[in-house]
Amino acid sequence: MSVPDPKLAIARYRAHASGYDASAQRTLGLRRRTLARLALRSGETVLDVACGTGLSFPLLQEGVGATGRIVGVELSPDMLALARERCAREGWRNVDLRESAMETAEIPGPIDAVLFNFTHDVLRSPTALARIFAATRPGARVAVAGMKLAPWWLAPLNLVVLAQARPYMTTFEGLGRPWSLLEPYLEGFALESVLFGTGYIGWGRVKPAGMGEQG
Ligand SMILES: C[S@@+](CC[C@H](N)C(=O)[O-])C[C@H]1O[C@@H](n2cnc3c(N)ncnc32)[C@H](O)[C@@H]1O
Asked: pLDDT 10s digit of each residue in the chain, 215 long?
């Protein structure tokens, strides 16, 4: 499939939701490194794009503190239900959860920082990115991480990448450079290849309004 399929994503995550947190343990180190790139400060508002079960919330809370705010938008009702349970369990009152596709989400801005952690479908949706950056203030920090295809000299590894990625994304389009539609919105974009070239962490700052479309 060459474009993300939200209906398929909802169906897939219905099946994955209950086992998601356990399966995501192996990428916890990567999650920590990615969130550190946001350099969150007390009192800020951070958008957790496609927040899933809210696995990043504890680290985001450490960054923004009780006076800050986390906005979590998530398409899958099953994943979001677990995020809600997490917030209730922890007694967090500063998390604004919204069940929606990013493409149509009402995002309460201005947003100071944006996290894209393993959100390939959203990264490959120009409509979703335009929506996100309409709510984000210029200069906001952005961090992104996920899986990608390894370079050609490690091509056999890509069979593993595709097998591991399949449950978590509905399109492989752009898997060579998943950040390519995001990059034009950012200045100072930097990229680190991880997991032998099968993963990446990227970071940068949002360009002033309108410059994203110009590249
Ligand atoms: C691999 S999970 C990552 C969840 C979370 N970001 C994390 O770090 O654990 C991908 C998530 O993207 C969500 N998703 C897919 N397409 C979406 C869209 N268009 N808008 C919002 N969420 C979406 C899925 O439902 C799923 O929860």
From this structure: 689 999 999 999 999 999 999 999 988 999 999 999 999 999 999 999 999 999 999 999 999 999 999 999 999 999 999 999 999 999 999 999 999 999 999 999 899 999 999 999 999 999 999 999 999 999 999 999 999 998 877 788 888 888 888 888 999 999 999 999 999 999 999 999 998 889 999 999 999 875 555 44
In what order do the strands lie in the sheet containing 95-99? 95-99, 69-74, 45-49, 111-117, 136-147, 199-206, 186-194
Pocket-forming residues, ligand 1, beta carbon under 6 Å: 4, 6, 9, 13, 24, 50-52, 55-56, 73-76, 79, 101-103, 117-119, 121-122, 125, 128, 168
Substitution site in 60, 76, 97, 102 for ligand 1 pocket (most atoms within 8 Å of beta carbon): 76
Instruction: Say if pTM beats, i.e. exceeds, 0.85.
Output: yes
Structural domain 6-206, CATH architecture: 3-Layer(aba) Sandwich (3.40)
Let me know: does 203 contact 143? Beta carbons within 8 Å: yes
Contact 212, 133 (CB under 8 A): yes
